[in-house]
Amino acid sequence: MRKIVHIDMDAFYASVEQRDDPELRGKPVVVAWRGARSVVCAASYEARRFGVRSAMPAIRAERLCPQAIFVPPDFGRYKAASKQIRAIFQRHTDLIEPLSLDEAYLDVSDNRQNLPSATAVAQAIRSEIRDETGLTASAGVAENKFLAKIASDWRKPDGLFVIRPEHAMEFLTPLPVGRLPGVGKVMESKLEALGIRSVGELRAVPIEVLDARFGRWGRRLHELSMGIDLHPVEVERPSLQISAEDTFVTDLSLEQIGGELAPLAERIWNSAQRSGRLGRGVVLKLKTTDFRILTRSQTLDSPPANAAEVLAIALALRQRVGLSPDTRYRLAGVGLIHLVDASSTAQQASLFV
Question: For 58-63, which contacts have Cβ atoms below 8 Å and span 24 or more sequence positions?
């Protein structure tokens, strides 16, 4: 049985701003550039009381909380704080799976400090983060990753919650199915149409029924309802893609977007070169004026040879968008997917020389 701790920093970007500027403490802080094209990177808990949330359009956040103090993001400082926090994790375990700058899973089944329990490790980490960075973190402790993540959100901010193995089923039973990982609004609606609103109701459905209705995902839903998650903490969590995106000053048509894709293709090609990886696929991401997100992708027989090939594929993918010609777009992104090491690709190619 594993002992997993999920650490989630509290309103991380906003908390760093409040720590570094005492004038911001206790006030509704929104980390974002002002303007119609900007989105919220983070909001302090004082701002969240007004309904402000991450990824919300900044102009809407301003309407919800007119007294909000907008602070432009400073990712250099956030990365520096994240590096400090990672160093604290490493005092306790080598098994660390970062999810972002402010969130990580830790496997503390064996911990470096020989503390008596996973709960003690979580308490120590939270205390060290507070003392050394001036920031607060919430922690969840459980026997697997998905339960630990739910637990870390249970007593936010600055909280600790433990789901003991013998209590896991009882804890899960009344939860809305939307609390399960991977169950978004669409899946939640599909389950509700079947009369399934809680995890307990989901558990009562025979696995054969879920399998017939949702395939492999149905079996996964059954496992989650039973508190089962066998995924280990992945120390080297590979990037799923290398991507770049840009929000336009004014909304553009699909045809006009073509001129904006070249610098994005150049950026991701340069990033891939620096990382020593190539992509066996290209993805085009678009966001419409009403914030609908759509993607189109193509898997390739061999990786693109240069940025120009990436651009050509991205331009071709526009033809598969399928929306009205009148549709306007506020954002476009280009990504390399199905990443492989450049060295292994070169070795494979040499076999045919």
Answer: 58/30, 58/32, 58/33, 58/34, 59/35, 61/30, 61/32, 62/30, 62/34
